[in-house]
Each structure stands twice: as C-alpha cells, then as structure tokens.
Amino acid sequence: MTTRLNPYLNFQNTAKDAMEFYQTVFGGTLALSTFGDYQATEDPAEKDKIMHGMLTGDNDVILMGADVPSYLEFSPNSSVSLSGDEEAVLRGWWDKLADGATIAEPLTQAPWGDTFGMLTDKFDVPWLVNIEGAPQG
Fold first, then answer.
1. Where would I find the H helices in the chain?
2. Which pTM value belongs to this model?
3. CATH for 8-67, options being 3.40.50.720, 3.90.550.10, 3.30.70.240, 3.10.180.10
4. Which fold has domain 80-131?
5. Residue 129: pLDDT above 90?
C-alpha cells in the first residue's frame, strides 16, 4: 500500500490551462474531469470547468488541481516546493515554470549552500525550487 502527500491547487476558471501547462513542465499523464462530466453543477457556465485534475508526471511528481465553483470562496494557493539533488531536472522545471512568471528570487546560490529560487507562475501559483549543494564538511 502507498501513501502520498501532494499539492491540490485551486484556480478561478483556469484549471484546464494551468494543468495542461504543468504537463509541459513535468511530463506524464493528465486526467481532467469537468463538473458537467459528473452532473456536479446546475450552473451551465460551470459545466466545462475542471472539477478534478490529476497530473501523474515524470520523476514521481503528482499534482492535482480544480476550478473553485462560484458558490465557494476562492483562497489563494500556498507555495509548492520542488527540491532534490537532480540539478538538471530541477533547473529544467524552473526554466519552464518561469515562462510568464514573476521571479521573486532568481535561482542562485543561497547562503546555506544550495541553489534556491522563488517565482509565481502565470497562473498565480507560488513555487520554491531548492537544488541541494555539495554537503558541507
């Protein structure tokens, strides 16, 4: 049996575009279900909105997301953190996420010895990227 902890992102009418964008970043398989697929809305304007999206990306990345229906209050997302020691993979993700993003902290060497950066992507999702440096001895 497997247990996972993975982010579930909230969007306001952009979940489909966002999840398709994340598939270009992380690869893998994307499954999208609309509110209309499950007759989960009586509002015709929301039938094509995403009720549940799941990206099963490469490198064991799992990312979920959905459009928040109009009858619920939208709350902004917390930061999503990507970290590890596979520099090429993490830099590649950073470069793709940076397309149209606001860079809060460029991906550079941090005081703790790792390479670190912060950005908010074009769908207003904040991301942190930390590439582990050589162990300090």
1. 15-26, 87-97
2. 0.90
3. 3.10.180.10
4. 3.30.720
5. yes
